Amino acid sequence: MVVIYLAVLNLVGFSMMGIDKWKAKHKKWRISEKALFASALFGGSIGAILGMYLFHHKTRHWYFVWGMPAILLIQLGMAAVILKHFVIF
User: Fold this and answer.
1) Which of 23, 29, 49, 72 sits most deeply, having the most CB atoms within 10 A of its CB?
2) What does DSSP assign to residue 58?
């Protein structure tokens, strides 16, 4: 279940970056930066980072360039702690 959840959230984060880039080019209503960060915080950080660089979107904003990888590192650290405490070798 966790793998499916993360796969969906990463697809959502990736898609949101692409959609927001398209909307920016076509002067349409935009996806808020808060929503883009929320998708990363809830588990879609890898997809958001990939979308950010693939679509060249938000790469001039320092808080995205540093914030998205920071979220990913925190999530990886939390996963390592959880796995260390709950997986018996």
Assistant:
1) 49
2) S
Helix (H, G, I), strand (E, B) or coil at 32: coil
The amino acid present at 70, given as its one-letter code, is A
Give the Cα separation of 10 and 18 in Å (integer).
Answer: 12
User: pTM value?
Assistant: 0.89
Rg (CA), the chain: 14
Which residue reads 């984060």 in tokens?
13
pLDDT tens digits for range 17-32: 999 999 999 999 999 9
Task: Judge contact between 14 and 47, C-beta under 8 A.
Answer: yes
DSSP 61: -
